[in-house]
Write a structure and sequence with these properties.
Elements (H helix, E strand, L loop, with lengths): L1 H12 L4 H8 L1 H18 L6 E4 L5 H9 L5 E5 L2 H7 L4 E4 L2 H5 L7 E4 L4 E4 L1
Parallel strand pairs: 1-2, 1-4, 2-3
Antiparallel strand pairs: 4-5
Helix pairs in contact: 2-3
Length: 122
């Protein structure tokens, strides 16, 4: 329980719009995040349109994918509730743990976690 409270303190110190502001105002963050986006989009190769982004924060990354594949299903999960609330206006975001959504893996055909730079076929 003590560890959870430490994580919660860290999450609450990060502004909900951290990624949106960083990409807009900071050249290095824009370069980093747009490069990660480019790599993920190239891995998708126009085949995977139903996406689950684990650790989506406020959904900047997921909203960029949704812009490229507007007819797909785009869902993000994160434990940072304030970031999720901020990002809900742009895409489907949920404050949740991974265990909650894994109960229905057939709903998605691509799982991404851009923080870990991993992408798995479902």
């Amino acid at each position: 329980m003590h560890r959870h409270k430490n994580f919660e303190k860290i999450w609450n110190s990060v502004p909900p719009n951290y990624y949106q502001k960083g990409v807009k105002n900071n050249f290095l963050q824009r370069l980093w995040h747009t490069r990660k986006l480019s790599v993920v989009l190239s891995l998708m190769n126009n085949r995977h349109k139903n996406i689950l982004d684990v650790g989506s924060a406020s959904g900047w990354f997921l909203s960029q994918i949704a812009a490229k594949y507007p007819t797909g299903k785009h869902t993000g999960i994160d434990v940072h509730k304030k970031a999720i609330e901020y990002g809900k206006k742009d895409t489907n975001l949920y404050a949740s743990s991974m265990q909650t959504l894994i109960a229905s893996p057939s709903a998605m055909n691509r799982l991404i976690s851009s923080s870990a730079r991993k992408s798995l076929n479902m």
